[in-house]
Amino acid sequence: MSLLLRNKGAMLLLMLNIFLVFMGIGLVIPIMPTYMIELQISGSIVGMLVAAFSLTQFIFSPVAGRLSDSFGRKKMIVTGMLIFAVSEWLFGIANAPALLFGARMLGGISAALIMPAVMAYTADITTPKERATGMGYINAAITTGFIIGPGIGGFIAEFGMRVPFYSAAVAGVFAALLTLFVLPESPMEERVKADPLQTEKQSLFTQLRNSYKEPYFLSLIIVFVASFGLANYETVFGLFVDRKFGFTPKDIAFIITFGSIAGAVVQLTIFGWIVNKFGEKRVISICLFVAGLFVLLTLFTHAYWLIVVVTFTLFLAIDILRPAISTQMSKLAQEQQGYVAGLNSAYTSLGNIAGPLVAGILFDIDINFPYVAAAIVLFVCFVLSLTVGKRVAQSNPVVEK
């Protein structure tokens, strides 16, 4: 509790900002069918809208990470929230596909500005021992936003199809003003500005090309694989269980929500204890193995309750994996928190772009192929994770106790 209230409740404000961004992403889900009819857009256009968000987030994330190191976390968060508000308002007034694309691309830019700054700010105000708890709080806010976004969107849409987006825009402006006037600047700002290495600007592709030299490169690969695997799983999950078991949309919603809520509860409560007890390396390796195993088990389940158990376990593993990786990299980053958080966000976006595309192609060939491929990739990444600990320990002994 002391961490949540420290620095004028900085952690709570960070959670509010990141929660609103990911709730805004979820708002679209229950409303898109109506938009498809009203604007006469196809399912492929909807898929491109999802990709547009992730693509712009991917392009801008490393740049935004550098900017947060150079100009301060607070400025990036406030700017990102204002752009978020504009993107939601634009989506609300959209009467043509071009405006929808503009709105989603602005949304991707806002996420790119906010996520690295929030992750870096969290690292700035936590000790190495508290780092896992802090990252768990942030990831819980992300997960919760994803969970309740569709529900809130569907409820508010009763007052008008576009009302959810106007409401999100107002909430974004409120959060930006609250952050501007209440959130103190990160205590690392002056130290970062004094380091000329931090203000050196590099292009996105230069940063990605050079990332293989960093001690956390394999962690970035794991970030990509985890995002790829989860996006792969979720993209075809509804189609898979509908085709194979005849599940209704209500059944599918319950399964996904149940697993996601469990992950958020763990992140908020015992995640910090788990990482401090067993260490990031061990937690990451176990989660990768469990995720790969339960993706594979999905192919062999034939009862509703088994699907619930398998999906619950898989989502729990992924929800523990993501903040564990963020914690490991933030401990290695030292005073490059924004830069590393930007790379983290970029690799996440790459996974979110590639996962649905690959899943769709494989699903058209055979409905089982996406999960076979995801399981293989996760198992290979599990083997890679076993070597991460050695490099981490050599680079920074404080990461693994």
> Could you state the order of secondary-structure elements as H and E?
HHHHHHHHHHHHHHHH
Unreliable spans are 193-199
State which percent range the strand residues make up: under 5%
Number of domains: 2
If you average the pLDDT, what whole number results? 78
Give a short account of the largest sheet.
none
Report the helical percentage: over 70%
Radius of gyration: 20 Å
Distance between the termini: 24 Å
Structural category is: mainly alpha
Q: Any idea of the CATH class of the largest domain?
A: Mainly Alpha
Q: How would you summarize what this structure contains?
A:
The chain is mainly alpha-helical and 401 residues long. The protein has helices at 2-39, 43-71, 73-93, 97-125, 131-156, 163-182, 189-194, 196-199, 204-210, 217-245, 249-269, 271-278, 280-297, 304-333, 337-365, 369-395.
Summarize the structure in words.
With 401 residues, this protein is mostly helical. The chain has two domains: 1-180, MFS general substrate transporter like domains (Growth Hormone, Chain: A, Up-down Bundle); 205-401, MFS general substrate transporter like domains (Growth Hormone, Chain: A), CATH 1.20.1250.20. It is built from 16 helices and no strands. The chain has helices spanning 2-39, 43-71, 73-93, 97-125, 131-156, 163-182, 189-194, 196-199, 204-210, 217-245, 249-269, 271-278, 280-297, 304-333, 337-365, 369-395. The two termini are 24 Å apart. The model is unreliable at 193-199 (pLDDT under 50). Its main location: membrane.
